[in-house]
Amino acid sequence: MQLVIAEKPSVARDLARVLGVRPSGRGGFEGKDHVITWCIGHLVELDEPASYDQRWKAWRLDTLPMIPAPFKLRPVASSKDQLRAVHDLLLDQRFSEVVNACDAGREGELIFRYVYDIAKAHLPIRRLWISSMTDEAIRQGFAALKPGAAYDALADAARCRSEADWLVGLNATRAVTVRHRSGPNSTLYSIGRVQTPTLGILVAREQAIRSFVPRDYWELAGTFKSDSAATAGANPAFTAKWAAGKTTRFGAQTAVEQVLTRVRVHAGRSDPAGPVVESVRQKKTREAPPLLFDLTSLQRTANRRFGLSAQTTLEAAQALYERHKILTYPRTDARHLSSDMAAELPKLFRGVAQIPDYAGFVAPLLAKPPNPGKRVFDDKKIHDHHAIVPTGTVVAMTALGRDEHRVFDLVVRRFLGAFYPDAEFAVTRAVIRVGATSGKPPARPKAKDDGDDKDAIADETLLDHAPPPPDRFVARGRVRLAAGWQEVAGFGGDDAEAKDGDLPPLADGQRLDGTFAALAKATKPPPRHTEATLLGAMETAGKDIEDDELRAAMKDTGLGTPATRAATIETLVKRRFIARDGKQIVPTALGVALIEALPVESLSSPELTGQWEARLSRIARGQETRAAFMNDIVRYVRESVDAIRGAPVNRTMATNAPDAKPAQALEARKPRGKAPAPATAAKVAPRPTIAVARAIAPDAAPAAASALNLRCPRCKRGQMMAGKRGWGCSRWREGCGFVVWFDDNGKRRSEADLKEIVSQHA
């Protein structure tokens, strides 16, 4: 007789239906050949510190680090009754073997192994490994059960993950909290092996935004008109941007005004040195369909398109997999299909064709079946599960919830589009010359070095001097010739509709009329993370990588797994380390204080944790040993605790429990690059580096506050305003974080003090 252990009751009911077992009974379903029972997520967890050593019950630095050997297990308190039922069945002598039917992944393996271990069971293990919950997939899975030993390496990786989280999380949390606490009601500073580096990504971005010093720059635009275009019925006017080689920006207003003056002299077509088309180049480009969805890319796209959180997307995808059975296993990191699935395509297409919304897109694929290619089918790029695709099971779309419908629609369109042709575009680049020329384009002028002042929108240099004439303006146009896969998707790329542009008919040597204008702009700081961009940063260990192929190459080095990233974000929100502000995710003052107080930088290092995740992946593939990984974790924990023990106490953390409001304002600090440090920096910023946005927000100012008629010395554009705790720049929403606090070591600053400080910073 066979015992089957599923991860959830809903899965147990599906297995019972397919195996012909009557789904009745409180702790399990009994049939002639099978008994099916279930876990309720984790029934077993690692034991608490006091179970190993009573000295570990109290939170004390002198008892750290806590290194259990071996680790002990204990029941999860909320599900003891179900654990007792599973425990008794595992020891029942009626059974000749047990089938691990928990979710086919690292956590599913851990759930089963912990239950098996705590029961001290000895039944032979077989593994059900399926990627779809359709009846056919379940039957095929039971017909191809594998020995449990084939997944021992995966179980090792799962245990390593669990024990490493215990060692790093409990030891570091206790060490940091005890080191900085001031009483029984002190804030608990929770540390996690994945959680804290994720928080570190957000804090680093916030610090970059608030320490950013904007720099003014100018661009020069020309609007040109062609009579021939008007005759042909096309839009006769088009816009082009001034460029000298790859440089398009001026760092000095005098330079752009000099160029503007000389091009305006030659604005007419009748002028021999007036605007003339110097070159027109056209070429065709192709855009391949995007890769199929894994969980992270699905979460990113759903967040950008619909504003869905990662957790909401996961829950919707899980319901489509478990309850509706119309999607394959969602907790996957693969974006390809296995080669044996090529034969199933006609069946999947026929199933999707029965849904009216997609019937028209499926018809060409059924009429002429696509040839399997490595962009879709690649066994080498699949570890445990293939990409998320529809199962072909038909469902009434009205039976789906709103979020379920959205997620299903994304997956189906991405799946069908993968078998459509490339989208094709005609790309035009036109260069318009203004001014007399010797016939040779000038070399790119040497521009002033900007030092360390970087921004998120360009890395090019800024010209402080006008280059010699002639001047050239570049215009680009892009017209879609063939929709290809975009016909199915209904948009271009992953996240936004393609914006088609066109230029009027132009020919080399064609004369034009032009009007010119200088555009004043300012460099911008990097944007705050959304859930989509944070998931991308977690996937690539903090590196901002947009390219699908490059992200896929770094999957093993990410923070957490596709199955755990949504939970990590929700944990940070629950613990008040981060907060959602519309679509943005921002660190709170509590989260910032935690990161800034860590003496061990690697505790918040995405790269280090990403390396650990890569090693866990190698353990799961049998390429590294569990012992080597755990030895390194233990050594790291010892070194981290020693560093925290010897670190100075953070006074802000010790005397004031930081609040959990979004930390969206930085104190005045030493500027980066070549900007001189303010002479009174110590007086201006006596408080922690990051404060709460309401401290300087104009709408939070007291009723008696008034404009001070003082220009902000940092951005040179905003006005100083009085808030509840200090004076701040009126452009705080645009990224200027200059603040002067009212309090100066117990004394209140006057407006005269403020004026003196501002003049010293100017």
Write the layout of secondary structure elements.
Blueprint: E1 2-6, H1 9-19, E2 28-30, E3 34-38, E4 44-46, E5 73-75, H2 80-90, E6 97-101, H3 106-118, E7 125-127, H4 135-143, E8 146-147, H5 152-180, H6 195-211, E9 216-225, H7 227-232, E10 237-243, H8 253-265, E11 276-287, H9 295-306, H10 310-322, H11 345-353, H12 356-367, H13 402-417, E12 423-434, E13 471-482, H14 486-489, E14 513-522, H15 531-539, H16 548-553, H17 565-574, E15 578-581, E16 584-587, H18 589-597, H19 606-620, H20 626-645, H21 651-655, E17 665-666, H22 681-684, E18 690-691, E19 720-722, E20 726-729, E21 739-741, E22 743-744, E23 747-748, H23 751-761
Parallel strand pairs: 1-3, 1-6, 6-7
Antiparallel strand pairs: 2-3, 4-5, 7-8, 9-10, 9-14, 10-13, 11-12, 12-13, 15-16, 17-18, 19-20, 20-21, 22-23
Helix pairs in contact: 3-5, 5-19, 5-20, 9-10, 9-13, 9-15, 10-13, 11-12
Notable traits:
six-stranded mixed β-sheet, single chain, 23 strands, flat
Flag low-confidence runs.
Answer: 442-459, 493-500, 664-707
Structural class, by secondary structure, is alpha+beta
* Biggest pleated-sheet summary: 6 strands, mixed
Strand content: 15-25%
Anisotropy-based shape = flat
Number of strands: 23
The Rg value, from CA coordinates, equals: 31 Å
Strand order of the largest sheet: 2-3-1-6-7-8
Percent helix, as a range, is 25-40%
> How many angstroms does the end-to-end distance come to?
83 Å
Task: Please state the average pLDDT score.
Answer: 84
* Number of alpha- plus pi-helical segments: 23
